Structure formats: C-alpha cells, structure tokens
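call fold(seq) -> tokens
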Amino acid sequence: MDLAAGVSLRQLRVLIDALPPTSALGRALNGNAWSDETHLLAFIADALQVSNAQVAAAAGAKSVKKPKPLPRPETAEHSRDEDPNAEAREAHKALVAQVMPGR
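ret:
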C-alpha cells in the first residue's frame, strides 16, 4: 500500500478494523481502557487475595479482613451512569461557538 499516492476508503476501513481494542479508537468506542487480558489479571489477583485470606483464617490468624477487589476503570474513573466524555464534549461546543459564532 502506497500512502503517498493516497488510501482508498476500503483500505482505510481495513486498517481501522485491524486496530487492537487497546488503541485510542478502541478505547474511545468501547469506553474502557482495559483489555480483556487486564480484566482477567485483575480477576486472578482478586481471587488470589481471597484465597490467601481464607488460608490465613484456616491457619488460625485472628481478625482476617475481607480483601478489597482491585479498582476497575468503571469504579476508578467514573460511574457507568455518568458520561465520561461530557467535559470534552462541552469544551468542543465552546470552541465551535468561538470559531463559528452563528452556530
């Protein structure tokens, strides 16, 4: 593919479809910065913490606290009800209003 000669719409579509889910476009479309592998690793870490707490309790440790799960992107950044792009959208509207006062 010769990028200097231009890219057809079909070639552009193929390139976009081949982007990984962790790319900027994938994160923007899915609204999630974590890949499936990262979610799985967090689940494994949570399960390991619970297992360690159970082993400690079975071994006679006193006051074993229930481990807290690792924060996920949904809980760390914003709730699902909240629009994560609201601030960027408002900034865009303000910029458009400055550049094109009639709109």
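The CA atoms of residues 57 and 90 lie 51 Å apart.
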